[in-house]
Design brief:
Blueprint: E1 8-11, H1 15-26, E2 31-35, H2 42-46, H3 56-59, H4 62-70, H5 84-96, E3 105-107, E4 110-116, H6 128-132, E5 135-141, E6 144-150, E7 152-155, E8 183-184, E9 199-204, H7 208-218, E10 223-229, H8 245-258, E11 265-269, E12 272-278, E13 284-290, E14 293-299, E15 301-304, H9 330-337, H10 352-355, E16 362-364, H11 378-393, H12 399-404
Parallel strand pairs: 1-2, 1-7, 2-3, 7-16, 8-15, 9-10, 9-15, 10-11
Antiparallel strand pairs: 4-5, 5-6, 12-13, 13-14
Helix pairs in contact: 1-11, 7-8
Flavin-adenine dinucleotide (FAD) binds next to helix 1, strand 2, helix 2, strand 4 and helix 11.
């Protein structure tokens, strides 16, 4: 089971992790993929009921298509919009079963932390000595914890497991932590269990997940929705002349709901939750400030869809320069903040230099590389993998050691 320091370690078997693993095998590098969940695409499966707003042609990389075609599969393509489940069933699962990846993916293995063997965080800043030291991985596996080595680490662990708080300023509102068990923080399969959402739902957030939830909740006859939005005059992330019609549809529905177009839905803009408390009848009372004055919501359910943030705990002992605003690696963040505003489709490829960290040989790819920015698209993640793979092809990475080992 133990890997050598000659391995490429891919952390996370989401879409970007699997694409990165294929790129490593294409480059002739030994690769091990560590996946915390029981199946590849574990995060994607947990929002499997959600329909993507990007079509198949943007959701699979050229590398994925070519690997599937070579193995006799018809790669998903075209203008249809898959659900998360479709993405996992029709793309990720077949990819994981390809001979190129067979035996290289460890399901149920969570990487707890990564360090440089024999070196502390502050030692050998940017030196060859640091680059030459193997990475040391601490892994929680089904049979307990163990340690592995790797020469190169690609952190593709996403952000879905680290949701933001619903309180003002991004920290918990008083009472929020005590009521954590009453708050749903991921987009639930509303139509699969409509009865579960009967009564009043307090929804907090304004991004695409919150908009999707609002649209779904408005369709449930037994549900009354109180939707709190932080901005006073939200633009709902609208992109002028949007080339993605599903994304535009979501914006239009949100605008209609906010304009009072639905009798069971109240949208309060410029609103903040100032406290949460449990009532004797089991419901949750939320104190809210709004531009019109204080307000109180008594809710049967609380749905906090206030975005996700990258968790740095895993690489705390490495030399990673994080952006103080986004939590993304500094260079990636600067490139993104300086680029095309709200349209994630218009974001340029960031380039290999931008993806490099002060820690040599450690890359953060995929949704995690965007920190708390919610503009990540699969297409951007596959572009990042292309950049790193390009460096492998040009032998710019310390790969000789990997290939020889
Ligand atoms: C509801 C929703 C809808 C979206 N819709 C679109 C869309 O329409 N189009 C689009 O392009 N993008 C969309 N996105 C954004 C983005 O493309 C997805 O979040 C995508 O899943 C990101 O891929 P990833 O591989 O970077 O990370 P993830 O899919 O999050 O995969 C990370 C993997 O790492 C594993 N993992 C986590 N921690 C560890 C650890 N410590 N050790 C080992 N494994 C670990 C997880 O279990 C998971 O399998 C959407 C996101 C969400 C949440």
């Amino acid at each position: 089971m133990a890997t050598s320091s000659g391995h490429v370690a891919v952390l996370g078997a989401g879409p970007v992790g699997l694409d990165a693993a294929l790129a490593a095998t294409d480059a002739g590098l030994p690769v091990t993929v560590y996946e915390a969940g029981p199946a590849v695409g574990f995060h994607v499966r947990s929002w499997g009921h959600v329909r993507l707003f990007t079509p198949w042609r943007l959701n699979a990389s050229a590398r994925m298509r070519s690997h599937l075609a070579r193995a006799g599969h018809e790669p998903p393509d075209g203008a249809a919009y898959p659900t998360g489940k479709d993405l996992a069933d029709r793309l990720l699962r077949p990819l994981a079963a390809l001979p190129a990846l067979a035996g290289r993916i460890r399901l149920g293995h969570r990487v707890a932390a990564v360090a440089r063997a024999s070196l502390l965080k502050h030692e050998h800043i940017g030196t060859r000595t640091r680059a030459a030291a193997p990475f040391r991985l601490l892994v929680d596996g089904p049979d307990g914890e163990y340690e592995d080595r790797a020469g190169l680490v690609l952190d593709c662990t996403g952000t879905y497991a680290t949701p933001n708080s619903l309180g003002d300023g991004g920290i918990a509102a008083p009472g929020e932590r005590a009521l954590a068990h009453r708050i749903t923080r991921t987009l639930p399969p509303l139509h699969a269990e409509p009865g579960r959402w009967a009564g009043t739902v307090l929804l907090v957030g304004a991004g695409k997940s919150a908009q999707t939830a609002a649209r779904g909740l408005a369709e449930l006859p037994g549900t009354r929705l109180e939707w709190l939005v932080r901005d006073r005059d939200p633009d709902w992330g609208e992109v002028p002349d949007d080339s993605l019609p599903e994304r535009q549809r979501l914006v239009s529905v949100s605008r209609d709901l906010a304009a009072g177009g639905h009798e069971r839905v109240t949208v309060r803009t410029g609103a903040r939750v100032t406290a949460l408390a449990a009532r004797a009848d089991g419901r949750v009372r939320a104190a809210v400030t709004t531009p019109a004055g204080p307000h109180e919501v008594v809710a049967d359910h609380v749905l906090a869809l206030t975005g996700y943030a990258a968790d740095p705990a895993l690489y705390r002992q490495l030399q990673i320069h994080e952006c103080y605003a986004t939590g993304a690696p500094m260079n990636v963040s600067a490139a993104l903040l300086g680029s095309a505003g709200g349209d994630c489709l218009a974001q340029p490829a960031v380039g290999l230099e931008t993806l490099r960290n002060p820690e040599p040989g450690f890359y953060i790819l995929g949704a995690k590389s965007y920190g708390r920015l919610n503009t990540f698209l699969l297409r951007s993640g596959y572009g990042q993998v292309d950049e790193v793979a390009g460096a492998w092809a040009a032998a710019e990475e310390p790969l000789a050691a990997l290939r020889e080992s």
